[in-house]
Amino acid sequence: MTDETLDKGGAPRQQTTDRNRTMTTAQGGPIADDQNSLTAGPRGPVLLEDHVMREKIFHFDHERIPERVVHARGYGVHGHFELTEAIPELSCADIFQRVGEKTPTFTRFSTVAGNKGSADLARDVRGFATKFYTREGNWDLVGNNIPVFFIQDAIKFPDLIHSVKEAPDRGFPQAQSAHDNFWDFISLSPEAIHMTLWQMSDRTIPRSLRFMEGFGVHTFRLVNAEGKSHYVKFHWKPKQGLQSVVWNEALKINGADPDFHRRDMWDAIDAGDFPQWDLGIQVFDDAFADAFEFDILDATKLIPEEQVPVRIIGTLTLDANVENFFAETEQVAFCTQNIVRGIDHTNDPLLQGRNFSYLDTQLKRLGGPNFTHIPVNAPKCPVHNFQQDGHMAMRNPKGRANYEPNSWGEDGGPRENPELGFQSYPEQVDGIKQRTRSETFADHYSQARQFWISQTEIEQDHIIAGYTFELSKCEHEKIRLRMLSHLRNVHKDLAKGVADGLGVTELPEAATPARAPITDLPPSDALSILKNGPKSFAGRKLGLFISDGADADLVSALEKAFEAEGAMVAIVAPRIGGATLSDGSVKAADEKIDGGPSVLFDAVALVFSQEGGEALSANKPAMDFVSDAYAHAKVIGWTDAAQPLMKAVGASPDAGMAKLSEEGAGDFVTLCRKLRHWERTLG
Ligand code: HDD
């Protein structure tokens, strides 16, 4: 078969929508009329024998499959992983052996709580799941953009998710955690406090899926050819740097473009601006694990990079959008149990429960055990076994033998291979069967405090605002107070800041910790977003707001300067047809001002003619454009003619604003690299 007749997964493309082909039924029969049902006479009843109409509607009726019970809203992208440092001494996984070798991948980003149709900028953890189609089978690294988790044991997962999703009686609120049920559960589950610090930080409102980190969260094992094991934690570090939006911006983006993140990813890849992440590993041994202050099997704890540095071993490049959202993004089935020789699980009770849940959920979602036959899930290496039949089986073992061992000679089929096959690490396990939580999991506040003291002042303000907003949406005071009793154990400034925001004058008693927290953990710069921002404006977007009569040379100079920076420019104008510039040329607009608010851009420029500027100074969407950009601490480029509009919204020039001139476009770009002029918000 030629490439054209195969899809990305290598399966035959059975369906085409080419214009020059005759339309057929699913059975392949040519269709003569797709406009009218078969009736008895022009005004008579529709006949039951109309197989064309019935088949079409039957199929339509069954288009939906159950959405994922969590991470329902997601966006998938193809790519590849390139190994930059081989680690045979640590792992015999085939993917880690040969520098420069590329392994195809599929990555799906997601929010957790919202339904499939919810908005992209909900305050939520982001899923970051990657399927590596290695030569020795599929390896799924199913992580998040936060290195720790809410709970320690998988048995609590249904409770956590029930509490955050819509209340069962009223069916709302959805795609948010700002409600009683969530904070009720959290405040009764101290193990979750550390994760809520991350959740209330701007990590949960990323500017782009391209600008966030990823983490495998659990401690896994790497096992080498001699069977020697090391512990490992996986990290994804975006080459694009970290960047988030501010909360007020997130609320407005959800209104202006609920698909903001997926559109951003699609556009970047479509434009050839392929996002990249380095794969990092934190490797440590039993001696470190025994000496570490916390239990390495506890998923509510991280290992600071200062204690175990992150070693970069490869790069993930996302370079192709899906051809069909349903076939690929919806049907992709990640399973934490999908590991390959050279990588192994640990006894983390969260991970062990996940290993059951993912396989189980795919059966429900995809309807049968043969979901590995779907191209996006199919390994790209040969598959040999005696599994057969089941719903939608696309392939079955050939020949007479469908069991093993058999004595049908050379054609008897595949056999096991102890050398090449997966071997579980032979860890000694011994113990009394019991339901208990290890004492070593009991410190719930120390790393929360470490996270807090690692943030910049602006980030701390945002965390306080995050808790304050969320708890203000709780109708029950006892829940707000219970949360404050935990925050007191994290840091007094945090508790005080949130209490002030909520109008609580007397702080409740601090919650009694299960174990005395360690109070002297040092700050870790890796935990801050602002300390890990980008060095350039590349991959970011300028909103260039123009009016009729705007200086054509300046518009062109700005476009050139930002293009040279690797950034995108979107033209915003009073009319979508564009604006007639000073030289008489017409510049088409990407957005009409009403539909292109400044929240969609990383920086804005206001290039008006005198007349255009005056007309816009009383235009409400234009006023919101500037007022929001100013309030969100964005870098603003302005021309004299924009002054009436700026004055109208109280945006007076400051160090985060650059006066534009054709020659000065470069200075404006330099200023934009800062991304935000935070000083403006510090009052
Ligand atoms: Fe999960 C989906 C990440 C704990 C049960 N999870 C899912 C996805 C991601 C994560 C990224 C979306 C995959 C995709 O794009 O298709 N989950 C995590 C992380 C966790 C975690 C990082 C903690 C470290 N999850 C977790 C637990 C359980 C589950 C403890 C169950 C006991 N997760 C599921 C699931 C989902 C899922 C129900 C829903 C859809 C799916 O699996 O395929 O099985």
TrEMBL record:
Its EC number is 1.11.1.6. This is Catalase. It comes from Roseovarius aquimarinus. Its cofactor is heme. It catalyses: 2 H2O2 = O2 + 2 H2O. Belongs to the catalase family. HPII subfamily. The keyword Cell membrane does not apply. Residues 24-412 form the Catalase core domain. Decomposes hydrogen peroxide into water and oxygen; serves to protect cells from the toxic effects of hydrogen peroxide. It comes from the Bacteria. InterPro entries: Catalase, Catalase_AS, Catalase_clade2, Catalase_clade2_helical, Catalase_core, Catalase_haem_BS, Catalase_immune_responsive, Catalase_large_C. GO terms for molecular function: catalase activity. Residues 1-44 are annotated as: Disordered. Keywords: Heme, Hydrogen peroxide, Iron, Metal-binding, Oxidoreductase, Peroxidase.
